[in-house]
Amino acid sequence: MKYYLSLSSGREVELEVLEQGPGTARLLVDGREVAADFLDVDRLGQYAVGLDGRSYAASIEARSDTQLVVTLAGESFAVTAVDERERAAGELAASRPKAETIMASMPGIVVGLRVELGQTLEPGDPVLVLEAMKMQNEICSEHGGIVQEILVEAGESVAGNQLLVKLAPLEEEA
Amino acid sequence: MPPLRKVLIANRGEIALRILRTCREMGVDTVAVYSEADREALHVRFANEAYLLGGPAPADSYLRLDRIMEIARKTGADGIHPGFGFLAENPALVAACEEAGVAFIGPPVRAMEIMGDKLASRRAMIEAGVPVVPGTTDPAADVDEALAAAEDIGYPVMLKASAGGGGKGIRVVREPSEMESAFSTASGEAASAFGDGRMYVEKMVVEPRHIEVQVVGDRHGNCYAIGTRECSIQRRHQKLIEEAPAVNLADGVSERIQEAAVAAAKAVDYFSAGTVEFLYSRGEFYFLEMNTRLQVEHPVTEEVYGVDLVELMIRVAGGEELEDLSALEPRGHAIEVRINAEDAANNFMPSLGTVSGLRMPFGPGARVDGAVYHGMEITPYYDAMIAKLIASGADREQARRRMMRMLQELHIGGVTTSAGLAMQILQTEEFCAARADTNFVERYLEEGRAPQREFADDLEEVAAIVAALHRIHQGAAPLRRESAAGGGLSPWVAVGRQRRLAGRANR
What ipTM was estimated for this complex? Predict the structure, then answer.
């Protein structure tokens, strides 16, 4: 199985599993062979990792099946890890325009709405202001789009992961 | 005024625990108070007595002055320590303490009132001969007034909540077009946090560094400066990394700034522990504000000067006259990193969840002030700071390397923290040369520059490999059910155990 790993820095790593035993693996990392061993320390995300004799204390938080945050040597690295099948499926999906939903990333209070129904947003445009942990944060649209539905009012308390605003995809230019 | 025997700690989290630890060492009994969200918190478990205040929201719990005073009366506490945040800079608490005959472990009410008011403190500092930043003498009530004031002073300017503190209600305005939105968000934040939306307009000092002075005074007229701290590593006026002493200052500044801090404190007849904050730019310093309370970053001063500031506060509140603290000599250097449950990669959104798995750094020169434990729920009700790491060394470079080592050892599972960003910042040229200004972190984040890492290993590649191994491991998990030999364990775990057993047999 092949894995494609993208880091938030933009770096891409291609990795192929040549051989896999329990707790060990022989890998081809960007064409270089690496002997790996990998031990689950606490089943809560801490791992003892060996790569060609170099030893690492690593931990992993999984945001989703493919979105992983690896903490290593005091730093955290966001890694998107997809296998070859997922990559093929992803390429197909990416060719379609994206609808976007604005969710509350945490419980808080919507202190202000910055958009109206039908408004066209560019990527990065502010959608609303959410207050949590005593700080006001502007929530912006990632891909842009047309405001299709506004499900909250200013002053409303919202739960984490609550759907706040729905955007329809921008029509692709002909 | 007799020494205190029982102290009520009107706070939660890391700082409540910090105060409690000193009380325990002094043989002073402690009374904890808590909200419904904090029943299992360490400050509750470690105190001698603990009482419920009310619901999780601060307004229903840690800001309930009436409940806190009632508990103080009921328990016979003879002192109240407010920590920082919540009621720490609220003169009503000091007044209530006075009325109840309980010692407030902090400064006199008049000092708090003057220093809590940007304009009054500014006037007092000008009178005392302490240098201040040019700005308005009266607060602006609306955008038009703010625009007019900014026109007089010259852009860029800072908007600051008249009743502000802790980074809330502060915005930079570089040109007139930015004023309206900056004024409305900052004023809104200030109105919700402090009930006062008036804003003060002030000249922005170019490339300022944040240098502050720890002061401690007693009720007998003694007031001492206990060295400088630098806190320029901050984002949106929230400090991330602090250190003591401040280095890379022009000749004579360290002495002059400490003298100015004592003059500032004496101008308001200050006693107890307090911090006088200054902006430093190109050999000049300007009074920023005085925090009339214990400061988050107080441990770096404690490490360098070998004092316990909480102990000094409790002794002062008990009426004791302090020994001559001007004789204290600094030893080496200390650096503090705040560990916040927030995601630097996602616009510093609070990271809520349950802490699962915890590994704290130990070893030489490592101090951890924290309230975090395995199983702790990070809720949206309170501040995101869950621990502070403090590294001390013989010099700044040793403290820096030690902090990096501590951050490598730290593991907090289940939530995302600011530790990784601190690790990157500690390795930047600017931090190493002690010339980062207060805008450095924001610039660093905007630039998105590649981290300068002092590691032989290619950490990005290792992280990528670990991510792949994790996926392979997850994929292997279903084997568990089929493999009788594994005894229900994942084969990865089972093999690890076999290897450990084999290692033992070979010995």
Answer: 0.78
